[in-house]
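Sat 14:20. Reprocessing the chain from the morning session after the first attempt stalled halfway. Input below, unchanged.
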Amino acid sequence: MHLHRHLTKSVNLFTLCVILFGTAGCTSMGERADNERNQFVTTFYATVEDVTPIKFASHAQEAAAMGAVEGALYNFGDDDMFMSALFGAVFSGMAVSLIEGDLNGLEVGLQAVDGDYVIVTTENDDIVVGDCVYVRVTENVHLTSVPVDYCESDY
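Finished this time. Tokens:
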């Protein structure tokens, strides 16, 4: 009797866990990034008319300078002051470069289905002239390639 009650409780606990984790998994579908809260969202289809490669600005040099100053001040007056400044510059510059990632991007001219012409910048590097894209604009711009049929008529 005691074993039966224990097994029943274990099965019920397992079932509850499956339901809770299953529900949690279902609620995560369609999630949006936290920075999209309270944003004006606009979407449209457009044909890519122009693509110009661009470079985004880097802050690695400023970080290296600040790292050098911090390293020098940390060991101010010691024989290690120069090495600390050098280490601080290299470490800070590399850390910011890693965080920034690739600085290459594109400036993309889009002819929207409704006739508007807009220019957006993107990190997306696989956009080519003639592509049909779904554009979602919130705080950021997201371009997704779609079949050319979407750009031939207004959906």
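The CA atoms of residues 61 and 93 lie 6 Å apart.
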